[in-house]
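Lecture 7 notes: from sequence to structure.
We start with the chain below.
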Amino acid sequence: MEVTKILDAKGLACPMPIVRTKKAMDELNLGEILEIHATDKGAKNDLAAWTNTVGHELIKQEEIDGILKFWIKKG
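Predicted structure tokens for the same chain:
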């Protein structure tokens, strides 16, 4: 998987991870991938719901040492 851009949203509380993700996705072309790093546990549900609502694809998510990582493909 080739990541186009990485967004560091660590330390941000809701709704800022979503706000920053939306802004970053607006800068990508169709099919490009954004990798997001967050620490807000609410980001798991928020990003999954948001991607479904706007037509992007949540390719993968994982948690490593308290850092939530998401890979979203622009749809």
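Points to note: The helical segments are 16-26, 43-54. The chain has one domain: 5-73.
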